[in-house]
Amino acid sequence: MTQPGNDTTDGEIGYQEREAVAVFDSEKALNAAVDALMQFGLRQKDLSVLAPSEKLSASNPTTALEDKDDAARAAYVTPDSRVEGLAALTGGPALVTGLGAALVAGTVGLALIPTLAVTIGGAAATGSVGFMLSRIFGRKHADAIQQQLANGGLLLWVHAPDTKDDAKILEILTQNGGRDAHIHVVHRNWGIDEVPFKDANPDPLLKL
């Protein structure tokens, strides 16, 4: 259950959320756990993984991030969605707009969005450019997976607001190869920085 929070001195609102977490030794095992969780009734938006932007090392392995409130996260993207997205990219970069930022953020991180904008804006919507972009997405995803596996494993967080589901969620995680599966509470803040497009200017001709 999401716990209501209190206003902080900088205007942000603090709150708490319950979730399950586990570490996996392969992407196949993690995907199998996700399939079972979704069959149980969870939604894709209840799942998150470690973001590729998180810097890992021997002193900062994935296992040390399991219970950290500020660990960089990304929305879980199903393998089917990723394959379909890469196929669409190969067919033409103009389709990136239709895919939206979710695929980008979930597979390679937000850092590539400006690069994509330049590439798409400066090139014709040809299959060759789309193929190049699909290669970038695929390689970045594979590199992120390998880096996480080399530094402790793949993390999966599962939003678990209802305590009656705890036992089943932990059972599914464990049966599908999840290590150190447990429930914890994370502390988060909601403020102006979390408002989507807070810095966007709807009209580029407007002067602030």
UniProtKB/TrEMBL annotation:
Keywords: Membrane, Transmembrane, Transmembrane helix
Transmembrane portions of the chain: 86-105, 111-133
Official protein name in the record: DUF1269 domain-containing protein
Biological source species: Kaistia defluvii
